[in-house]
Design goal:
The complex is a heterodimer of chains A (398) and B (292).
Chain A: H1 5-14, E1 22-25, E2 40-44, E3 57-60, H2 63-73, E4 77-78, E5 81-82, E6 86-90, E7 94-105, E8 110-116, H3 123-129, E9 134-138, H4 147-156, H5 161-180, E10 183-194, E11 199-201, E12 205-208, H6 217-221, H7 235-242, E13 247-249, E14 254-257, H8 261-273, E15 280-282, H9 290-301, E16 308-315, H10 320-334, E17 340-346, H11 349-362, E18 370-373, H12 379-395
Parallel strand pairs in A: 14-16, 16-17, 17-18
Antiparallel strand pairs in A: 1-6, 2-3, 2-6, 4-5, 7-8, 7-10, 8-9, 10-11, 10-12, 13-15
Chain B: E1 10-14, H1 19-31, E2 34-39, E3 47-48, E4 51-54, H2 57-63, E5 67-72, H3 76-88, E6 93-96, H4 103-116, E7 119-122, E8 127-130, E9 134-137, E10 146-153, H5 156-168, E11 173-178, H6 189-198, E12 204-210, H7 215-225, E13 230-235, H8 259-268, E14 272-274, H9 280-291
Parallel strand pairs in B: 1-2, 1-5, 2-4, 5-6, 6-7, 10-11, 10-12, 12-13, 13-14
Antiparallel strand pairs in B: 3-4, 8-9, 8-11
Helix pairs in contact in B: 3-4, 6-7, 7-8
The chains are: A alpha+beta (398), B alpha/beta (292).
């Protein structure tokens, strides 16, 4: 989970990593601009990279100019993100731009510190064009980064004497932050040497592990809570998120009611392969509650774009009987008209089958557009039939 | 012969008193898995489905020194400790059902497992099955039948559909292994591929990966060294770029982790690529007859 620059810098302050004094401005807090010394840099707060190129990092000589530039940025879009906050910082003279991070090497499955004298640009580009300019220092989880290693890194970054000690301390603090908060990434790019000799983290990137946040209550106290980080959510995605359902809107007309994420992804491939268009991605997670399953169905039924629903439950840890109960209760309560073509197999299948058969007998009218196949029908056939029915619905103008 | 688990493998369930664990202990016993004990700290002395519950794994192991496999069903915050306890007790294979284990915890687990030469499968794995011999995890037994194809997949349901379509085509599985859906896993694809390569009763391997992470790319070079054919399927070709789909792992980022980068890496190292799940049996048939 990536943090905004201002959130990352608040964390840096807690860990005594030097950052510039700054203020956060949104539409309701322009008076904050009185509290900063000019000239300043105005930076849009977004997760997406490339904000400099897009014109969302700007200089301002005085308050009037800053106000104009802030007002100009707020509400604008960078990619799919709307800019809601900007960070305003004192502009300083810079002598050198460096790079320091703590990260996880996913190929080796080992954490490491990365340092480079070529900061201020995209580190991936440096790695490609000039790999020798990137220095890597692996360490073990559970072991402390030795002080001498931090000094080595500072020395490799070109520091000598007192400045070397200052930089080594910063490196150690980056390491400590990374380990304490169980981060995926702590990155300073650039770490600058100011004209007056100070060493300062000019930008700050922190990527947290959402699955470890339960151990770090201090984050919540700082207002750092789980959020969606890739683009903006559609209305339906917001509803799904509030209910704890990973859901992504796609632009087709076949609602996908899968089991877990892996098959959800494979189902989208299969539907496209057979010429259909999926309306969504969805993930039930392991052993979903009946309430969650009903909410998942509701998302598809309420979507006017969806002409037919493809459903699949292969019961592993998620039980067929729970699934069948959820489908039956949803159908009886909501009386959906959209065709549903589904398949149910796996653990507790027999119990699930009984529940479905009984409901079908008692509510024939409600279940007339609902088919639930069993183990002996290949999933491909179920998908092909859903695609056919969606087309019939489309042609009939439903 | 099968890999990792066979009819005589003694297995322990960690977190056996939980709702899902106790239900699946019942299923595993019905299937014939030899479960010699369970562990839940604080609940020693109880029984689950006739299986004795111990407070510690050490205590359980001292009475059942033949146990080689342990399966972990505890909540995520206790998973690291449970896995380390298993490794420390002399267990050889740990099957981690728990999902969403913190990343730093798994990095630590990998370090220790590597030092002690223990195979940790998962987290977020459905487990593994050697049909009609043993089942460790929560895979539905209906979809597996004995045979000579090894399978290894990141996702649970994909594992089931894979076996389903192999069976409909007349094949069966030597062992089916769920690699797991969490972002940092204990075992890599190649750890499992190596075991299949050494197994005399496995004629071919089907591996199913998905977008996100780099596990498929890491495994690719080993496929070149294998003598049995590998048929590979990657889910997520149709996934929209920049969207996070489900599994913490399934996010497309950078040049690695896309369906195309995985397919390219696998194909260039000699894997046979299946475009869809449904064409896998046909490709398996061709690969085996070509080799024979």
């Amino acid at each position: 989970m990536r943090l905004y620059e201002y959130e990352a810098k608040n964390l840096f302050r807690r860990y005594n990593i030097p950052v510039l004094d700054s203020i956060l401005v949104d539409n309701s807090s322009f008076n904050e601009l009185d509290k900063v010394a000019y000239p300043v840099v105005v930076k849009a707060q977004v997760f997406l990279g490339g904000r400099g190129k897009a014109g969302f990092v700007q200089f301002a000589q005085n308050r009037k100019e800053a106000e104009k530039k802030v007002a100009n940025m707020l509400g604008k879009k960078h990619g799919s993100f709307t800019i809601e906050k900007v960070l305003v910082e004192r502009r300083i003279e810079i002598d050198r731009e460096l790079y320091v991070s703590a990260a996880i090497d996913r190929l080796k499955h080992e954490p490491l510190m990365i340092a480079s004298q070529k900061g201020g640009v995209e580190i991936e580009v440096v790695a490609r064009k000039d790999p020798s300019a990137i220095l890597k220092y692996y360490f073990k989880i559970g072991a402390k980064l030795p002080d001498f290693q931090a000094r080595n890194i500072a020395s490799d970054l070109g520091f000598t004497g007192a400045a070397m000690s200052v930089c080594a301390d910063i490196v150690l603090r980056v390491f400590t932050l990374f380990v304490h908060l169980e981060c995926k990434l702590v990155e300073i790019n650039p770490l600058v040497v100011a004209h007056d000799g100070r060493i300062i983290a000019l930008d700050a990137k922190v990527d947290l592990d959402e699955d470890a946040m339960f151990r770090h209550h201090e984050l919540k106290e700082m207002g750092i809570v789980a959020r969606h980080e890739i683009g903006e959510l559609t209305k339906r995605e917001r509803v799904a998120k509030a209910k704890g359902i990973p859901y992504v809107d796609l632009d087709g007309d076949i609602g996908v009611f899968p089991g877990g994420a892996g098959f959800g992804i494979a189902a989208i491939d299969l539907i496209q392969h057979y010429g259909g268009k999926p309306a969504n991605f969805m993930d039930s997670g392991g052993a979903p509650t009946q309430e969650k399953l009903r909410a998942m169905l509701g998302l598809l039924i309420d979507n006017p774009r969806v002409k037919a629903i493809f459903g699949a439950r292969f019961g592993g840890i998620s039980r067929c009987d729970d699934w069948a109960k959820a489908v039956v209760q949803y159908v009886i309560e909501n009386k959906p008209k959209k065709p549903m073509i589904m398949r149910m197999a796996g653990n507790m299948e027999e119990a699930g089958r009984k529940i479905l058969e009984q409901a079908k007998q008692e509510h024939q009218e409600l279940f007339k557009n609902i088919k639930i196949y069993a183990y002996d029908t290949p999933i491909e056939e179920v998908i092909k039939e859903t695609i056919r029915i969606a087309k019939t619905q489309r042609d009939a103008g439903n | 012969m099968a890999i990792i688990i066979g009819e005589n493998t003694s297995t322990i369930i960690q977190g056996i008193t939980g709702k899902n664990a106790s239900l699946h202990t019942k299923f595993m016993l019905e299937y014939g898995t030899k479960i010699v004990g369970g562990v839940t700290p604080g609940k020693g002395g109880q029984e689950v489905e006739g299986v004795r519950v111990y407070d510690t794994l050490h205590e359980c192991m001292s009475e059942h020194p033949d146990a080689t496999v342990s399966s972990v069903w505890v909540p995520p915050r206790f998973a690291k400790d449970a896995i380390l306890e298993a490794i420390d007790s002399g267990i050889k294979t740990v099957v981690v059902i728990t999902e969403r284990i913190p990343i730093h915890d798994m990095l630590c687990v990998r370090q220790v497992a590597q030092e002690k030469n223990v195979l940790v499968i998962g987290g977020n794995t459905p487990g593994l099955i050697s049909p009609e011999k043993s089942l460790v995890g929560m895979l539905p037994k209906i979809t597996f039948q004995p045979g000579r194809i090894g399978t290894v997949a990141r996702s649970g349901a994909v594992t089931y559909y894979l076996a389903n379509s192999l069976n409909l085509a007349g094949f069966g599985e030597s062992t089916s292994v769920g690699l797991g859906g969490d972002p940092i896993l204990g075992a890599n694809f190649e750890d499992i591929l190596q075991l299949f390569e050494a197994d005399e009763e496995t004629d071919a391997v089907v591996m199913a990966g998905e977008i996100g992470g780099v596990y498929e790319e890491i495994a690719a070079p080993y496929i070149r060294e294998m003598s049995i054919p590998v048929i590979a399927y990657i889910a997520g070709k149709a996934a929209p770029a920049g969207k996070r789909l489900g599994h913490a792992g399934a996010i497309i980022e950078g040049s690695m982790g896309t369906a195309q980068s995985k397919i390219d890496a696998l194909r260039s190292n000699g894997a046979i690529i299946a475009e869809t799940l449904s064409e896998i049996p046909e490709l398996v048939k061709k690969a085996i007859s070509k080799k024979a």
